[in-house]
């Protein structure tokens, strides 16, 4: 649920405003009802804005509620300077909404106000039409979801476990820039805390988690790289990180893993997969975005996608391109949330498609790799990258595809079979993608959120770059 401020801007002539006030108020009633019907809270200005004094005072009253987004409603011609004054008193994201009516020219008022805001560099969105029309309402809700995501970032904390992984510049970001651009603080936590605290998790709790996984997933012990003891070590590591998340009030996280933990302790595959899941062996829970290899821009992208969509977010390497099929294999060391195996609300339905295989030679410390094939469906894929120090959001539409067990296995065995795989058809030529994409990691959620991501970028002053399409 978002909190949405709503001000209706009117004509500054008293004799005109008097005759159109009921019309303006009725349009505001309809907007509020539509937004409340969509599940949001609406904070309305007590009075219509038809003087310069009301423009400032009413905007301040609405701003006191700290809305995620403020809407200026234009159902009639409105004096543009009222919008300028109201915008000055409105600190957050702003959308101008107008009717399309031949008698009452709200559209003219919106254009005049929007032009003035453009002149002073005030970022805002614009929507036009009748909110009773589902298309218009959805366009307005795009701005709502984007504003929720931006507001959800502000004042949040990212937990960074470990340092730069394996020399990846793309996994490390400037904390000053994060705070200035996104409003996110970074808490540095040593990976030793995971090792230390995991030993304090009760054996009974670790055993319960192991038995739940053995019951619902397909566990392939080999007596060496994967044993019940190693699986319980991974489960204890998960609980250690959960404890640190609660203690440090972390909103999203990243874990370095390689090479220290993966060589000498155990992999974080179970930890990362189930933190990103909306459940674990102890029941339903909120998903907690966690990026492997402590990839900061990955985690930030994932958090934005989660705040927009409400769904768990996939993390993957752009591992391989099958030119004969024009598809990509998105895979990364067991890190995909198990929810993606079937995208079901029932954990058992997802986990019956999940295999816990012994870790491969990259990770001599052993443990379970969380293998599954992502369920098919339309996806939005995205990644925050940087060019000459400036952030850009690179976005592409695509779909996960399923070819049946036999072909899926043939394709997966061409890379690292034990890892999870998302076979992806992207709406961008391979040459363009490989020439322009600025990282080795990519992230995805089900559905089409391109419009929301574009608005997030406008609100954050981040460049938006659509690939293909």
UniProtKB/TrEMBL annotation:
L-fucose isomerase N-terminal-1 domain sequence ranges: 2-155
Residue stretches making up the L-fucose isomerase N-terminal-2 domain: 252-309
Annotated Gene Ontology cellular component terms: cytoplasm
Domain of life: Bacteria
GO molecular function: arabinose isomerase activity; L-fucose isomerase activity; manganese ion binding
Annotated GO biological process: D-arabinose catabolic process; L-fucose catabolic process
The L-fucose isomerase C-terminal domain, residue ranges: 330-464
InterPro entries in UniProt: Fuc/Ara_isomerase_C, Fuc_iso_dom3_sf, Fuc_isomerase_C, Fucose_iso_dom1_sf, Fucose_iso_N1, Fucose_isomerase, Fucose_isomerase_dom2_sf, Fucose_isomerase_N/cen_sf
Record keywords: Carbohydrate metabolism, Cytoplasm, Fucose metabolism, Isomerase, Manganese, Metal-binding
Protein name per its UniProtKB record: FucIase
């Amino acid at each position: 649920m978002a909190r949405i401020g709503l001000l209706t801007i009117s004509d500054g002539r008293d004799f005109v405003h008097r005759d159109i006030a009921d019309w303006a108020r009725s349009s505001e009633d309809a907007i509020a009802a539509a937004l409340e019907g969509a599940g949001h809270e609406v904070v309305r200005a007590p009075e219509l804005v038809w003087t310069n004094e009301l423009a400032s005072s009413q905007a301040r009253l609405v701003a006191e509620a700290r809305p995620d987004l403020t809407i200026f409603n234009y159902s009639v011609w409105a004096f543009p300077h009222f919008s300028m004054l109201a915008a000055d008193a409105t600190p957050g994201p702003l959308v101008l909404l107008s009717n399309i009516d031949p008698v009452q020219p709200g559209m003219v008022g919106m254009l005049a106000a929007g032009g003035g805001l453009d002149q002073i560099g005030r970022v805002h969105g614009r929507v036009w039409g009748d909110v009773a029309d589902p298309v218009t309402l959805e366009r307005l809700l795009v701005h709502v979801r984007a504003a929720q995501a931006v507001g959800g970032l502000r004042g949040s904390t990212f937990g960074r476990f470990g340092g730069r992984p394996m020399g990846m510049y793309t996994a490390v970001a400037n904390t000053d820039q994060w705070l200035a651009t996104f409003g996110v603080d970074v808490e540095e936590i040593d990976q030793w805390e995971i090792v230390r605290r995991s030993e304090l998790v009760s054996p009974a709790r670790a055993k319960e988690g192991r038995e739940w996984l053995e019951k619902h997933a397909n566990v392939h012990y080999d007596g060496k790289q994967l044993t019940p003891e190693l699986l319980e070590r991974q489960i204890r590591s998960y609980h250690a990180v959960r404890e640190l998340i609660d203690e440090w009030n972390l909103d999203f996280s990243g874990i370095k893993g390689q090479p220290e933990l993966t060589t000498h302790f155990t992999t974080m595959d179970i930890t990362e997969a189930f933190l990103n899941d909306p459940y674990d062996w102890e029941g339903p829970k909120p998903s907690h975005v966690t990026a492997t290899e402590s990839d900061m821009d990955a985690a930030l992208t994932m958090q934005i996608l989660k705040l927009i969509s409400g769904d768990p977010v996939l993390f993957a390497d752009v591992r391989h391109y099958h030119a004969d099929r024009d598809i990509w294999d998105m895979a990364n060391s067991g890190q995909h949330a198990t929810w993606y195996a079937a995208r079901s609300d029932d954990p058992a339905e997802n986990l019956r498609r999940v295999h816990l295989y012994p870790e491969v030679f990259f990770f001599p410390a052993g443990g379970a790799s969380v293998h599954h094939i992502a369920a098919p469906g339309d996806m939005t894929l995205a990644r925050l990258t940087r060019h000459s120090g400036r952030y850009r959001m690179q976005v592409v539409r695509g779909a996960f595809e399923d070819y049946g067990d036999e072909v899926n296995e043939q394709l997966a065995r061409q890379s690292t079979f034990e890892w999870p795989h998302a076979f992806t058809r992207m709406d961008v030529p391979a040459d363009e993608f490989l020439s322009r994409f600025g990282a080795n990691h990519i992230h995805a959620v089900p559905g089409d959120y391109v419009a929301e991501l574009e608005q997030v970028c406008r609100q954050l002053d981040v460049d938006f770059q659509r690939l293909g399409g």
